[in-house]
Structures are given as structure tokens and as C-alpha cells.
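Review form for a predicted model. The reviewer records the input and the model, then writes brief findings.
Reviewer: anonymous (R2)
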Amino acid sequence: MTFHLQQPIIVKLIDPPRDPTGLADVLLGALGLTGVIVVIAVVLGIVLAGVMFWMRSRSTGGAEIDGPTPAVKIKPGPYRFLRRFVRQA
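Model under review:
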């Protein structure tokens, strides 16, 4: 009985290709368009608040009006009952 030797079968295992997406890509994908809009709204809100704070700190606070502010006068009519709460000038 003769045996023929067969060549061994060699299987080369290769690693599957890795996913090239990083953490930033995953987070941006999870946030999507809604997340981007929310982030833009928050940033613009902070910027607008800073501008308003800066403008108010630069304002004169009503110093351009000379003299006291005019008194509020209530006309007689359906609001007569309010006269007792307002000091007459």
C-alpha cells in the first residue's frame, strides 16, 4: 500500500479592516443636525448675553435726561380708585 503525501493546507488569517471613524465622528454622528443646532444656539446665546452686558455697562444709565422724570398722572375715569395709591404732585 502506497501513500501519497499531500501538501499541507495553509490558511492565513488576516485581521478585518478597522473602522476609521474616531470618537469625534461618532459623537457628531450621534448628535446629528439637532445637536449641532443646539450647540450653535447655546454659543450664540452666550455671545448675545456678553454683547448685551457690555452694551449696558457702557451706557450712561439715563444720564442724558435733564431733571427728574415726569410724574405719572392718572386721568379721572374708570381708574379713579387708583388715585389713593399714587401720590399727587
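Findings: The chain has one helix and no strands.
Further findings: The CA atoms of residues 10 and 32 lie 46 Å apart.
Recommendation: see findings above.
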